Amino acid sequence: MAHIKEQTEPDFFVDPKPLTESGQKRISDYIKADKAKRAKLKPSKKKGTYVQSN
Questions:
Q1: For residue 6, how far is the Cα from the chain centroid?
Q2: Do 42 and 34 touch, CB atoms closer than 8 A?
């Protein structure tokens, strides 16, 4: 079994750019729509009411 040498330098660099107002709104709208879609797909987890009789 051979020893795998790890890289010492990063593979990529990230250059963060600030979002524009329209970009922020598009992302926010997408997240809201996705959450609404997922809420419709999830089955409800309502538990029945059980009464214990003596």
A1: 30
A2: no
